[in-house]
Amino acid sequence: MSGQASYLFSTRTSSGLAQKIAQHYGQNLGEINFQQFSDGEFEPVLNQSVRGGRVFLIGSTFPPADNLLELLLMIDAAKRASAKSITVVLPYYGLARQDRKDKPRAPIGAKLVANLLTAAGATRIMTMDLHADQIQGFFEIPVDHLYASTIFVDYIKSLALENLTIASPDMGGAKRAKNYASHLEAEVVIAYKERKKANVVEEMFLIGNVEDRNVILIDDMIDTAGTLCKAANILIDKGAKSVRAMATHAVLSGNAYENIENSKITEVIVTDTIPIKNNLSSKIKVLTCAPLFAEVMKLVHEHKSIREKFII
């Protein structure tokens, strides 16, 4: 057991998840005073001493950019308050889709965020289901990369589905689908898609057989839900008995709720890394990631291995 004190704080937009994490961790969230200026500028001030302790700052960096800025200011505040270590808990890592330069004169946003977090004073990063695993290499500090499979696999098993098939909605997710399938002793199919621009799928083709199969689509995030819904419709047309979708991060922008509600998907299962309005669609089920984060945070604080918390 570590003799070092631990402190938990949260950004404003992630307070719901942070409260659950704190409850499972067995400690109250620390108070932060937010001074808001009339022009929109804000200043977070930690309302207790953290000198010499381990600080956990919990905050997903989904848009607007103020969420990232708020987290950076909190890191700076903890550093200047003489915290011994600052672990930034990022359930959802914003800008992770910008992980490489795939066109001329494009930024690498995921690397920029890594630089900002480190420059602000973070000494450790804890996150879940990065859009690309190699983002861990953008940091020169330890990164604990958790997987929602730890949560999802148990739920899939509870469904007791016969003739189970795991599907990837694109080629990039093939490895993830294969890993899920290996734990569930299921078959794998892949939907191959062609895009002309972001969030718009022009064509989609299915690789594999789904006749009379119960299919679960696996992805790291749902944005507009266009890809998932199109894949689900193709799977049903190819003879699938049912189609469910699982995604860690419920971005759900644009017409996502409407697309899901009008699709042939039976159920969409997500985690609460991003707060969502699940009352807008009867098909959305939210599984909390709070116990997993709380358990790993405890292990990190006590300098114990977190290996047992990884499935995929």
Distance between the termini: 28 Å
**Helical percentage:** 25-40%
Low-confidence region ranges: none
Question: What's the alpha carbon Rg, rounded to whole Å?
Answer: 20 Å
Number of domains: 2
Shape: globular
Structure description:
This protein is an alpha/beta fold and about 300 residues long. It has two domains: about 5-145 and about 290-310, 3-Layer(aba) Sandwich (Rossmann fold); about 150-285, Rossmann fold. About 30% of the residues lie in helices and about 30% in strands. The chain has a seven-stranded mixed β-sheet with strand order 10-9-8-11-12-13-14, with helices on both faces. The longest helix has 15 residues, at about 65-80. The chain starts with 5 loop residues before the first strand and ends in an 11-residue tail after the last helix. The mean pLDDT is about 90. Its EC number is 2.7.6.1. This is ribose-phosphate diphosphokinase. InterPro entries: PRib_PP_synth_CS, Pribosyltran_N, PRTase-like, PRTase_dom, Rib-P_diPkinase. One of its GO terms (molecular function) is ribose phosphate diphosphokinase activity. It catalyses: D-ribose 5-phosphate + ATP = 5-phospho-alpha-D-ribose 1-diphosphate + AMP + H(+).
